[in-house]
């Protein structure tokens, strides 16, 4: 079956049903009500080889904030649950990913201690139906809900679509590396004996 988590979360602002398999093939079934955000989550799934089903009914009549932020909260929780006790995982992952004019650095430590650093400015306020400021909010929510140290840095780029897409792909590649099982790791990769 692999490392899988299914989460249902309902608030006054969003209803979310998400299933994540860390040991997947990159298949996805995404419906958030925000087309560009769907595209980003599909890219995350495909490039990280994660199977992801994500269906969100959010208060888009207000704006996209609750939908995107809550998706990040639930994804972080799903990653944390699917990892279980983290026995045998590589723990660290990083990727420097080029996409056309863009170059993105992403580094992850699945330490259980949340920390988030985002360094990048988008040249436009919206990409399709997604407010670009929500991209930072999404990754912040993932990092804190998932208990991970996450750094995302725009090294170069000018096209907002490429910038966002490269961020989601770099995150996927770094996370795939961090959750991968390393036969050399006995128990967990920590001198403390737990993550």
Topology of helices and strands:
Blueprint: E1 4-10, E2 14-21, E3 28-31, H1 35-48, E4 51-58, H2 65-83, E5 92-99, E6 102-109, E7 115-119, E8 126-127, E9 130-131, H3 133-146, E10 149-156, H4 160-179
Parallel strand pairs: 3-4, 7-10
Antiparallel strand pairs: 1-2, 2-4, 5-6, 6-10, 8-9
Task: Report what the structure shows.
The protein is of the alpha+beta class. Helices cover 34% and strands 31% of the residues. The strands form 3 sheets. The protein has a 4-stranded mixed β-sheet, with helices on one face. A 4-stranded mixed β-sheet has the order 5-6-10-7, covered by helices on one side. A hairpin with a 2-residue loop joins β5 and β6 (102-109). α2 packs parallel to α3. The chain is globular. The mean pLDDT is 97.
Comma- or semicolon-separated keywords:
34% helix, 4 helices, alpha+beta, 4-stranded mixed beta sheet, 195 residues
Describe the structure in brief.
The protein is of the alpha+beta class and 195 residues long.
The main pleated sheet reads as: 4 strands, mixed
Number of strands: 10
What is the mean predicted local confidence, pLDDT? 97
Kindly, what is the distance between the CA atoms of the first and last residues, rounded to a whole number of angstroms?
23 Å
